[in-house]
Design brief:
Number of domains: 1
Number of helices: 8
Shape: globular
CATH superfamily: Acetylglutamate kinase-like
Strand content: 15-25%
CATH topology: Carbamate kinase
Structural class: alpha/beta
Length: about 230
């Protein structure tokens, strides 16, 4: 990967829960903050975090909950995660702002594109919470949208595996890891990387995606240094 000036980092809420699978572990938040601090001097950073460690709208709908209501609950879950990560980053001395797509003035700024870009230009990390602010859209789609809006040169999708596989590597030992993929291959093969809306947005706007194992030591630093890790989708 060529060096870039600005990136968008996307990871699921489960990154904050670790092996617990639910809730927030302060040590996990601090571990994420340390990795981000490691690269902050070399690149401007925006972050989109999911809320799956607390609540997923699609999960609620399986049990008869109205999908829109469930999705709004999921947006609030991303707010909780964003505040936890902001606190962890500031404990590491990293200036951070949380911007939200839904109005919660007491705890976060409203999302304003030009203000977000200005924060990053001043060296602050900006966490974008509450997805797109609309139900029926995932935080993957929110990440693609925000990356394009802020002029990020790459979207980094943090996962618990070291790239994109032909099947679930935890269930299928014969699953094959891809070093690189074309956007259309991801869509045609229905690979579970990001939802199709997010992939299509990136494809239409030529925004490359790197899928990597965030829990590998110094993985973010390696990507910024141009080392070829994970799977690149372009």
């Amino acid at each position: 990967m060529a060096k870039c000036k600005r990136l968008l980092l996307k990871f699921g809420g489960e990154a904050l829960s670790g092996r617990d699978g639910y809730g927030i572990r302060p040590d996990m938040a601090q571990s994420i903050a340390k990795q981000i601090k490691e690269i902050k001097k070399n690149v401007e950073i925006g972050i989109v975090i999911g809320g799956g460690n607390i609540f997923r709208g699609t999960f609620g709908s399986k049990y008869g909950m109205d999908r829109a209501t469930g999705d709004y609950m999921g947006m609030l879950a991303t707010m909780i995660n964003a505040l936890a990560l902001q606190n962890a980053l500031e404990n590491e001395g990293v200036q951070t702002r949380v911007q939200t797509s839904i109005s919660i003035e007491k705890i976060a700024e409203p999302y304003i594109r030009r203000r977000a870009i200005r924060h990053m230009q001043k060296g602050r990390v900006v966490i974008f919470a509450a997805g797109t602010g609309n139900p029926y859209f995932t935080t993957d789609t929110a990440a693609a949208l925000k990356a394009l809006e802020i002029g990020a040169e790459i979207l980094l999708k943090a996962t618990k595996v070291d790239g994109v596989y032909s099947d679930d590597p935890f269930k299928n030992k014969n699953a094959r890891r891809f070093k690189s993929l074309k956007f259309m291959e991801v869509l045609d093969k229905k690979l579970k990387v990001m939802d199709s809306t997010a992939i299509s947005l990136c494809m239409e706007n030529n925004l490359p995606i790197v899928v990597f194992n965030f829990f590998e030591p110094h993985s973010l630093k390696k990507i910024i240094q141009g080392k070829n890790i994970g799977t690149t989708i372009s």
